[in-house]
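Q: For a teaching session next week I want to show students how multiple molecules come together into a single three-dimensional assembly. I've collected the sequence lines for a complex. Could you give me the predicted structure tokens for the whole thing so I can convert them for display?
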Amino acid sequence: MDDLSLSQPLTAAADLATGELRLSQARRGDRGVIGAVGSGVAASPGGLDAQELERRLLELGFVEGATIEVIHEGAIGRDPIAVRLDDMRVALRRRDAVDIVIRLESSAAGPDAR
Amino acid sequence: MSIASARIALVGNPNSGKTALFNALTGSHQKVANYAGVTVERKEGTITTASGRTVSVLDLPGTYSLRARSPDEAVTRDAILGQLKGETPPDVVVCVADATNLRLVLRLILELRQVGRPMVLALNMFDIAQRQGLRIDLEGLSRDIGAPIVTTVATRKRGIEDLVAQIEAKVEALAATGALEAPNTWHEPSPAEIRQAHAEAQRTMKAHVRPAERPDTLTGKIDGVLLHPVAGLAILLALLFVMFQAVFAWAGPLMDGIEGGMGALGGLVATVLPDGLLQSLIVDGLIAGVGSVLVFLPQILILFLFIILLEDFGYMARAAFLMDRIMGGAGLHGRAFIPLLSSFACAIPGVMATRVIDSRRDRLTTIMVAPLMTCSARIPVYTLIIAAFIPNQTVWGFASLQGLVMFGLYVAGITSALAISFIARRLFWRGQVEPFLMELPTYKTPDPKSVLRNLWQRAAIFMNRAGRIILPLMVLIWVLSTFPYPPEGATGPDIDYSFAGQLGHLLHPLFAPIGFNWQMTVALIPGMAAREVAVGALGTVYAVANAEEQVGTLAGALSADWSLAMGLAFLTWYVFAPQCAPTLAVVKRETNSWLWPSVMFAYMITLAYLAAMAVYHGAVALGWG
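A: Of course. Below is the structure for the complete assembly, covering every listed component.
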């Protein structure tokens, strides 16, 4: 159960700055601030078009500047995940979280932790 | 213009306590129906203001945005915009907000402002906000959003009078001017506009709301256990186990009572009315028909009670989270879990419960596989055939063989449902995956009164829906199995000469390849009304009076007449066959089309036929013919 089932190839991480992470790759305990939503990598393959997913994420409060922390991971493939988003808790699948980029808090787990 | 009566609509985010507020406002003056042409629940009630004005209150489905994503949310949007067919637009919109979770509703309020209807904001669950030490500058907030604010605690009926007074003030202002507060400028917001609105909501929050000094930590603690990858799943399984025990064990005595009562009533009527057609219609058609609906009520009430309690507590979203990956593997949405669970009692409430699924595709898939879950109407059939053909012996030192076969039939139902939805997803709706995005609400203690009210409403809907379909069907099937009368000097059972019997004989060549004799084929026809009716029908064709009570006698007759292979084929047929016309009728109603019940009938009957054939010939090859 150690491998993350990622719907997005790791190449997507290349255009992220250090300390940034896609929510789809975040692990329990990772926290920070949302840096970008709908960054245009792609909507989950075969899913809604990117803009529709972006709007739904925004409507549920995934907006730039919101604080976010991964608080739970599902039993199988660590999917779906539950996050604390400002004052709410939201569950979502990793494949729908690809387009959410979080800026990790400096004290939180960095890339070396995974 | 003068308004003697006015209309208001409640709108708000999901989990804002909107329905609790609706209950507090309207009390018992409410009725539940459907919106014209769509299967979205319409809850309307009335209040009488201090000045004697009657106000009708519409409880709209919860939403995060007027940009609708599901049929429920489309109703909310259209009702607010005044575009809903057959509905008068509301005079005043009451926005209901969870005072402890204001961020998203502030954005919704910005959308509501664009619509331009008079609005009142009800800050609900205000007691919790106070307990958490959340400070809200009500005046400033009211100024910013341009609407009066009333603080409420719906579950304790606090603030209700204030709210009604504010509503009335708005209604009077509207009557005085006769115009909306502003022209409607609402349009679907673009991502940029949503961001902008968020920023504005954020500014409002910062200006008027001081964060909680003692934020809720209980929900986090409970989630630590209930969403734990191992403990969480174990608890879910344990809950399911208790639920099943309750549905099947607790309901038993009640169901026996209802059956006994209806039987006694039938007997009483039979002694009063002279023998003949009228007696037969009333006793065998109507009373037996009502009984066949009523008998499921205890199970459905217990099932609904569990579901409502878990929903109100906030657990159902967690169950969907825990099950999402497992269901998702089969191409189902995590939320399909609840409808499929209900289908273990009866597919009808299961199909009705699919309304919680936003996406049409996900909903249709769930509806299509719901009847494969082993509903309780199959149990009498399974029990009979198992008693007749499966020896009562112990295997592996502890397990009862009969129990194992029963368990196997349940597993066959579940696995076939998952397989069918997997195939449907792969073949027809390839690549279409709806996102799974769901708020996990704060845990709350369910309010007993609202639980009971909800239970009553759902039971009434079930009885209404099922009764309207099953009763006429029972009468139809009574006609089919009564007419024409047997000729003089007939030796076989009466049903043999009826339309049902003739149809059975006519269809028999079709069923011969799967091992059915004509008696089995005849029993399938009344079994279309409800699966368990087949037991009584088999009793009739094998001339065993009171077959339901005399299972032993009937089982003896069956095991003497059928081979093991035939018994197994019949069992297999019942796992898959669409032997339930009411379910098909409910699917027609819920999907608003004949296409889906036809698809359901076609695939289930094909599956049943092929599976029964395979089992029959396999068993014959094993020497069980």
